[in-house]
Design brief:
Shape: extended
Helix content: 40-55%
Strand content: under 5%
Radius of gyration: 21 Å
Length: 109
């Protein structure tokens, strides 16, 4: 593996309230160009949100909003990652049973 393809960082998140440590094995497939594109999309989203709410924010407050959104996205995805195996197991257990969802009553469309 050349120096260009070696991971430059290790992402470790400890979400003590929901489970164990989760580690990203190989973050090298995300290029700097992709990071730039993602930053531009989130930047545009936050700017639209600020404009819609008619807020006056300086650069520091904008970056705080940016980081807050990133952390919320990370927390949401890590929670999903940790809970998905149990969701899948529950789905398999309910497959073929009446527990799949709410029963339809007569007269429901």
């Amino acid at each position: 593996m050349s120096d260009v393809n070696k991971p430059r960082f290790s992402l470790r998140l400890m979400l003590s309230s929901i489970g164990p440590e989760v580690e990203v094995d190989d973050p090298t497939f995300i290029t700097e160009e992709m990071v730039g594109e993602a930053w531009n999309m989130i930047n545009a989203f936050i700017m639209d949100m600020v404009d819609d709410l008619e807020l006056e924010v300086d650069d520091e407050h904008f970056r705080e909003l940016f980081i807050h959104l990133c952390y919320k996205l990370i927390y949401r995805e890590m929670t999903t990652l940790l809970l998905m195996p149990s969701w899948e197991e529950n789905f398999k257990e309910r497959l073929g049973t009446r527990k799949r969802g709410p029963r339809k009553q007569k007269g429901d469309s």
